[in-house]
Amino acid sequence: MAKGRCRVVKLNRVAVFTVLLCLAGLACAATVLAEPLSVPTVSVGLGKASKPGEVATVMQIFFLITVLSLAPGLLIMTTSFTRVVVVLSFLRSAIGTQQAPSNQIVIAMALFLTFYIMSPVWQQINTQAFKPYKAGQITQEQALEKAVAPVRKFMLSQVREKDLALFLSLSKMPRPKNAEDIPTLTIVPAFMISELQTAFQIGFLIYIPFLVVDMVVASVLMSMGMMMLPPVMISLPFKILLFILVDGWALVIGSIVKSFG
After folding, report:
1. CA separation for the pair 59, 57 (Å, rounded)
2. Separation CA 233–CA 254 (nearest Å)
3. What is the pLDDT of residues 84-97, one digit of tens each?
4. Cα 215 to Cα 229: distance, rounded to the nearest angstrom
5. What's the predicted TM-score (pTM) here?
6. How many whole angstroms separate alpha carbon 255 and alpha carbon 202?
7. How far apart are CA 173 and CA 176, in angstroms?
8. Mind giving me the DSSP string for 32-50?
9. How many helical (H) and strand (E) elements, i.e. helices and strands, does the chain have?
10. Environment class of residue 109 by beta-carbon count within 10 Å: exposed (0-12), middle (13-18) or buried (19+)?
11. Which residue among 11, 31, 89, 189 is least enclosed by CB atoms within 10 Å?
């Protein structure tokens, strides 16, 4: 059992470190683009394994490919992407334009806003963990600890104590003395729940002015006896006009970014 637990811990460390390396790669993308690009060569071959170590290496490669396939989901759920994309979806639904902007535009906008919001965290990972590890100045264990610290700090700054206490109670762990004693695998689901809660709160506030416009238009149509005319069709231009007059995009995007301050 002890060996099995050690293997699980090592696999979790490899998974977390792989995700953090992806974050560091995003942080230094601008620096890489400024340098001349070179096309790497890849060779794939099949052969018989003569030693048990070769089989273990193949298994590690398969595990690494699996982690890389899950990395986008892990990156999305440990960054500001969840809050941004949910708020933008609420905004589109509140206005009543179901296909404008399209899903591709909403996701692209959420991704670039995530890059903007998370850039300080990724820069810390790149400076404190990835570059020293690449230069051979620190070991893998030290790089992992230095890389996890900025991500944990960001998530703990946004997580609600109620959600954190919920997952601590579900894991049946003793009460931690400080934030450093809280496992990262406990912080991540609590952070996800907190992000959804905050996004729904912002979405509720976004709905209120557009709901008022719908109610006013529906009341006017009923008073005029136009019962067969859909109120949504009439209120849509007024909601778009209201959104334009208040400079809605700047207001919503600015509020989202400031909510992470």
Report:
1. 5
2. 29
3. 999 999 988 888 88
4. 14
5. 0.70
6. 9
7. 8
8. HHHSPP-------------
9. 11, 0
10. middle
11. 31
